[in-house]
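QA checklist item 7 of 12: single-chain prediction sanity check.
[x] sequence parsed
[x] length recorded as 120
[x] structure emitted
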Amino acid sequence: MNKCTAIWGVLLLFVITGCGVPHGQLRIRGEYTNLDQADFLIYSMDGGLDRVDTLHIRQGEFEFLTDLRRTATYHILYPNNDELMVWASTGDDVRIEGDALNLSKVEVTGNVENELYTEF
């Protein structure tokens, strides 16, 4: 292996591993059709968050990044008082997709627990 190939290999490794969520953090991002702007509350009763926080939806999208050292359950409270449960572990990159006109049909992906719950 020549020096140039080795450098490109290391660079590629950094690009691939640099795109994920670091251990010790959690990313929840989402997209809702038929929704331009809103604020949803997010909280955890088992230590995922030490406070109630806000997901700011802008142009139908949001991204939430927080520290997470262990598995936790998050509750997203919609303005109509419906809730969405999200299970997460450190390093997860959870994705939520749905239609604001039908919040009971939201799809959550990014780990096995959420995908099983969505399927159920």
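[x] summary fact logged: The radius of gyration is 17 Å.
[ ] second reviewer sign-off
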